[in-house]
Each structure stands twice: as structure tokens, then as C-alpha cells.
Amino acid sequence: MSTYDVIILGGGAAGLLCAAMAGQRGRNVLVLERSEKVGKKILISGGGRCNFTNVNASAANYISANPHFCKSALSRYRPRDFIDLVDRHGIAWHEKTLGQLFCDGSARQIVDMLLAECAAGPGEVTIRCNEEISDVTHAGDQFTVRTQYGSFTAPALVIATGGPSIPAMGATGFAYDLARQFGLKVVEPRPALVPLTLGGDEVLFRELSGVAAPVEAKAGKTSFREAALFTHKGLSGPVILQISSYWKPGDPLAINFLPDATAGWLVDAKRERPSATLRAILREHLPARLADVLADQLGLEGDLGNKTDKALHAAEARLARWEFHPNGSEGFAKAEVTTGGISTAELSSKTMESSKVPGLYAIGEAVDVTGWLGGYNFQWAWSSAFAAAQAL
Ligand code: FDA
């Protein structure tokens, strides 16, 4: 039986940073990782360049049953703190858009940086890959983790095994099973940042596969403005991924195809160019294939000059709030993250420690805190990891 100060389950973004920071506080840390290597999601993130934070990260960019929970951790380890770390390692980066920071080179640099931080000491961080955890128990003040290679004990156990998104990469719902074993509640996990699928009458939009346009997407009271992309299954692109985290099955999704248009623009167009067609006008603002499908659906053939103002106002209103009825999403197989997870109700927002089971911590995506697209999820991984490490 090997004994440590801390055992961290999962060598992903949160687990590695937590291990490094606990090690730097003099703790002897064991990281148990199921895959053959650590940081797999970091390596594929941001198209291989890792969108490692977002300079604008605040509680408003996160979804959770308790929207206040993430505030404390986010305020104590900010994007600036992670940028300073990246700078200390000489990793070049750039802001792409909307506060999103990416490596100039490769996501590999972030994993290497985390591993170098783990090796910095004074505490020793041991990372063991290919470990299948068969059993976790808690007796007295010690946690014991059994794997196919042996038994490991520590007075502190950190759940950092992430969420079930992209099972093909080894992602599992292990965190939830473990949380339930220890009597912690789990908020229903759902795929998020995920493409949506269209069926029924809306399959005709799948013919637009490959067409992209900047739109506004709205679900309930939440809306985002970015590019939408039609796919052979339905809808994707940044704006759809963002809104998918808020969309609930059965609800409509409203798309404003011309979010910059002013009220009455189509009637104005009729006055200025009565011999123009709706199709031609739409083609001036939208990709031609999309303009054609929308014009066909609106059914206003012929010159604008022959249409009533009422009909044009109705067309304008529909273009500003085109209701799609997605019949589902592409699921965990394609979801970038998972909403829901270990309930924050039983975790300390300062330390991520369970109030029910002292010494048990949960960090990163395993917890019911989910960020928007754009570096927010890694920032939560870093901030929650830091919060836990300060208490270990
Ligand atoms: P993470 O998933 O990183 O790590 C969990 C670790 O636990 C994994 O190494 C896993 O193998 C291991 N594990 C699972 N079950 C286990 C078990 N039973 N025993 C032991 N180990 C186990 N976010 C962002 O901010 N910017 C971005 O650019 C991207 N890009 C991106 C692209 C793609 C394709 C995906 C799928 C996701 C992103 N994300 C992202 C999201 C981001 O990757 C994610 O939120 C973080 O990696 C979460 O960090 P965690 O450490 O919590 O989990």
C-alpha cells in the first residue's frame, strides 16, 4: 500500500494544475489517469492550439444550478494568473476573437507546461497512466483507491475525471458514480456545446450543408451572435454550440438571419427598388444558397413592388425570428462539454471540498459548472483546481 498526502483522480486540465499547485505547497501527490497519457482533451482543444482562457471570464459566462458558486474560485485564480504562468514558460499566444487566447504554437505546450509545474517540487507529484480504478473506499480519515496495479491511500481525494463528453477519447461518467457512492447529488448531465439535429420539414435545411452565416440564435431568454453553420445533420457553428447549452429538447430555437437589419428594411427596399425580388435582396445580405431557401420558404415570388407592406413586414418578422425545432443534438459523442455534474450544493465554493465527506474534493468539468465556448471551460478547470490546491 503506497501512501500520499493527496490522490487526484484524472490527469486532465484540472487534475494536472491541482497536482502541480499542491506539489508546490509541499504535498506528495499521486495522479491516477485511466488513459495512456495525460491531458488528451487539452491536446485536441482549440483545433490543436488550445484556447486556454478567456480574458473576459466571469460568472455570467457559466451555467450552473447555482450561478454564484463559481465566483469565489474565478476571482482567486483569474485569466491573468494563468496568462502569467503561460508567459513564465515562454509560450507565445494571441487573442483570436472575443477575448479568446490561443497558443501560437501547439496545445502540447500547455500540457508540457503543466507537467513541468508538476515536477517543480518541493512536493513530489507521481503520475500513473493506464490505471483502471476498481474501487474507492473511505475509512477513518483515509481514502483508499484500488487499481489493477495496487492500492493507494491518502487523507485527501480529488475527483478530476471530467465529464462524459467524447467517450471515444476515454471520457467517462466515473465522477458521477463516485460522487453518488459518497452520497453527493448529481445534477442531470446533458451534452453541451454540441451541434443540433433537424428532422421533419426542416430536413430541407440540411441541403445547405457547408453554408455559414453570422446570425443571432435565441433559446428562451438567452441569445448569442456569431456564425451558424448548416451541416448534413442540422445546425452547428459557434452560435449553435453556444445556444445548445441553453436549449432544452422540445423547445424551439429562434434564428435572426439579419440581426443588423433595422425595422421596416424590407418595405424600405420595396420603395427604393420596386422591381427587385426578395431572393435578390436576400442574396445581397446572405450566402446565395441560404437566401434561396429562405426566399422559397417565404414564398414571395415576383417584384417587391407588387407585395403589400403587410406581407413584407411579415416576411421581415419571420427572417428576424425563424423558428427551428431541433429534434435533438449530436449527443455526448460530439459535445465539447457536459452541463450538470456533481452538485455544487454540497461543495465549498472556496475549496471545492465536500461538506458531507471531509477530505473529498471535486474540480473541473466533473462539477456542475459549465462555461461558454471560448476558453471559459479551461479557466474553470484552472480556477477550481487552484481553489482546491490551496486547501490540500
Ligand atoms: P478533462 O476531461 O480534461 O480530464 C479528465 C481526465 O480524467 C482525463 O484525462 C480522463 O482520461 C480521466 N479519467 C476519466 N475517467 C477516469 C477514470 N475512471 N479513472 C481515471 N481517470 C479518468 N475548453 C476550453 O476552454 N477551450 C478549448 O479550446 C476547448 N476545446 C475543446 C475541444 C474539444 C474537442 C473538447 C472535447 C473539449 C474542449 N474544451 C475546451 C473543453 C475542455 O477540454 C474541458 O472543459 C476540460 O478539459 C475539462 O477539464 P477537466 O480536467 O475537468 O477534465
Percent strand: 25-35%
CATH fold description of the largest domain:
FAD/NAD(P)-binding domain
What is the number of helices?
A: 12
User: Biggest sheet, strands in spatial order?
Assistant: 19-18-15-16-17-14-20
What is the level-2 CATH architecture name of the largest domain?
Answer: 3-Layer(bba) Sandwich
The shape is: elongated
Query: Which whole number gives the mean pLDDT?
Result: 96
CATH top level assignment of the largest domain: Alpha Beta
Distance between the amino and carboxyl termini: 21 Å
Low-pLDDT runs of 5+ residues are: none
Q: How many strands, what sense, and barrel or not for the largest sheet?
A: 7 strands, antiparallel
Task: Tell how many strands the DSSP assignment holds.
Answer: 23
Supply the number of structural domains.
2
The percent of residues in helical segments reads: 25-40%
Task: Indicate the structural class.
Answer: alpha+beta
- Bound ligands: dihydroflavine-adenine dinucleotide
- Report the C-alpha radius of gyration, rounded: 24 Å
The fourth-level CATH homologous superfamily of the largest domain is FAD/NAD(P)-binding domain
